[in-house]
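Dissemination and training. As part of the outreach component of the grant, students in the summer workshop were shown how a complex can be specified as a set of sequence lines and then modelled as a single object. The example used during the hands-on session is reproduced here so that future cohorts can follow it. Participants entered these lines:
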Amino acid sequence: MAFKKGLFKTSVGRKNLMAVTGLFIAFFLIIHLIGNLILVIPDSWFPIEFWGGVESAHDMYNAYSHFLVHFWPITLVAWILYISIIAHAIDALLITLNNNKAKGDKYQVTDNSTSTWYSRNMGVLGTVVGLFIFIHMAQFWLKYKVLGTEHDLYDLVVTTFKQWWVVLVYEIGIIALGFHLAHGVESAHRSLGAYPKGMMRVIKYIALCFSIVMAVLYAIIPIIIYFK
Ligand code: HEM
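and obtained this result:
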């Protein structure tokens, strides 16, 4: 019990919670991206015989979304995701408050020469990503999954991305997400694993490549839809 209590009260415990929830969210982002890339499949690819002769991106995207809502194991995973996002945000706030308290008015010499600007601004980047997720969920998730006021998700997403300012908000959110992931994925492995020093350099490189691929692929979706 004492162990459990200490697990999330100590700074190591908090960092581990941050790492586990962060990596789970990163995993969700891969699946979410694959699903949303359906939106930009060119018309010329249809009908796709391999998927039962599906006739358009419209049909395919709505069938995929329908499946997500009506398959209970996915609903369970979605709840784990919501809890992870909230826990990640609260944990980040607690770690920041604790760090600020620890610094107090002590004289500190900070060496920034080996760290990146984005690793020093994870709080700001995380806040931008958090605001983005809030807007994003209000636009799609709330209307489709919670209120049920929208039934054609493809139409909803396409109409939403026909507004230039929405595309701009998404680009800003996704750029912040890319930088947040670049440091977050590396840092999560550092918190969780006892890797040899050489291995951390490889992980840093993989985290960077991962975040670039994710950010670029997410960023092109609203742009392609806007110009389609
Ligand atoms: C730009 C491309 C994106 C598109 C087209 C898109 C589309 C959607 C749609 C239509 C939904 C509601 C249906 C559903 O719940 O699956 C949704 C949910 C969601 N999106 Fe996105 N999304 C995009 C990017 C992102 C990004 C970058 C994030 C995170 C930073 C994100 C986080 C979420 C979350 C957390 C949910 C709720 C998931 C759930 O209830 O299962 N999305 N997205």
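Residues 32, 36, 39, 65, 68, 78, 129, 133, 136-137, 140-141, 144-145, 153, 157, 170, 174, 177, 218, 221-222 surround protoporphyrin IX containing FE (CB under 6 Å). Students were then asked to discuss how this feature might be tested experimentally.
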